[in-house]
Fold this protein.
Amino acid sequence: MIHLTEDMREFYSHIKKSAPFMLGYPGNLNNSFSELNIFFDFIINNVGDPDCLDESYKMHSKNYELKVLNFFKEIFEFNSDSWGYLTNGGTESNTMGLLLGRSKYPGSTLYSTNGHYSIKKNAFVLNMPYVEVKSCNNGEIDYGDLYLYLSKDKKPPIINLTIGTTFDGAIDSVQKILSILKETLHENFYIHCDAALFGGFIPFLDIENEINFKNVDSISISAHKFFGVPFPSGIFLSRERPHCAFVNCVEYIDSDDTTISGSRNGQLPLFLWALIKHKGKEGFKKEAIECIENARYLKTKLDNIGFNPMLNKYSNIVTFDIPPEYILDRWQLAKQGNRSHVVVMQHVNKNIINLLVDDILSTINL
């Protein structure tokens, strides 16, 4: 048996003490996965396509991967013959979505704004023409600016929409984008939704009449954010199977190579399936509603002390005037310009919020 070193024990102590004060970054710290530790004694590798189950490498968990994918296909209204796989995180999921868009419409321009830093990086890696569209004050895409670009572009556009921008928690409207595409006479297009954080809870808020994903081509959701899997990971869904140049059958693994990473974390489907079975749709719905309600509570508290908070609709991210450096450091708050934010996850309850606000007050009153 491998034992912890002394410095690892110290690191564990540091992580345990820091966890309750992690408010500036998305991650659900309320889960306990200790019963699943038994699987870490094995190398579980989901190499190749999720649908290839009868391959020569038997230590995979693809049957669980398919169960997880079917769960997400249902809640995002992707039909049963759509495709997907579990990824190493949002960047890989976004890469796959943009790759499929580029493969379908070679030479087309990618349009995005205020999204995750991986979008611009992926445009560079994939050698895609890239236009950064303006954003509105709340972080949402500037639909007028996008209209101007699309009215001049005669090729089928590839559009990345962000469902919950990283800093402001803004939601780009799929319906408004579809209207713009119609007005600019674009019959062919590719829409990828980066729903890293909000994709975890939006489907459980019963707001399908306002936000739905019926007309998008692909979507990415993080598994380590709202769902709280304890390592970076993600879910990718596509309306179509990949038909890219790199897809081929690999004889020695007896599987199609359809994914970007090839070898994939076989622990991830087990963790996600355990979560789905333990909480179910009702459990996720309860947590989603609590996060939204607590975000509103935080906004009210920060309003009362004059920190000019802003909270987008259906968001759990509250931005506000930047507090003293001590607060930023202790509560691990992100900052951008003269603003900071709190991402209200499941562990950020009203007691924690009260502690944060009292801490801010005590610091500025010194």
